[in-house]
Amino acid sequence: MDKRTLYDQFHRVESRISSMGADVKEIQEKMDDLIEENANLQIENQHLRDRIDFLTKEKEDAQKQEPEMSKSRLNLQKLYEDGFHVCNVYYGSRRLNDEPCVFCIDVIYGERDRKN
Predict the structure, then answer these.
(1) pTM recorded for the entire structure
(2) Which of 14, 41, 66, 86 has its CA at a distance of 20 to 30 angstroms from the CA of residue 103?
(3) CA 74 vs CA 18, 71, 78, 84: distances in Å
(4) Are 87 and 107 in contact (CB under 8 A)?
(5) What is the C-alpha to C-alpha distance for residues 46 and 112, in angstroms, rounded to an integer?
(6) What's the CA angle centered on 112, arms 107 and 113, to 5 degrees?
(7) 3-class secondary-structure state, position 114
(8) Does the structure show a pLDDT above 90 at 36?
(9) CA–CA dist 36, 72 (Å, integer)
């Protein structure tokens, strides 16, 4: 092998190594960007999970605070929805055109603290 051939071969190898170095550097930069993006997404995901947990707990607390209606009030509510008065003024009479009745609504939903 003469010196010229050896020099040309060395130059080709050097070019390939330089090209591979540039490729490795480009891949490394892309990988750094992906790692940073992944970290940001993990943080955002954790914040979203925390927010969902907070809202779920808040909703459960709100549901626990609102007392449920007794069976008797539920029965009155069903009668009222079926179109009948449940108040002591018009009890048992039909509500014309399903008009609302303040007295009935007060009987069904008013003051839940009193004994049922």
Answers:
(1) 0.45
(2) 66
(3) 82, 5, 6, 14
(4) yes
(5) 40
(6) 130
(7) coil
(8) yes
(9) 60
